[in-house]
Amino acid sequence: MQNDPGAIRSADASSTLEVALENTRRGAEAIRRGGGLFAATRLAAEIEALRLWAESGGFIRHYEELSRPPDAFGYEHEVWFPKSGSPNPRVLKATYDNSFGVMPDCREATPVGYLERLRLEN
Question: Which domain of life is it from (predicted)?
Answer without folding.
Answer: Bacteria
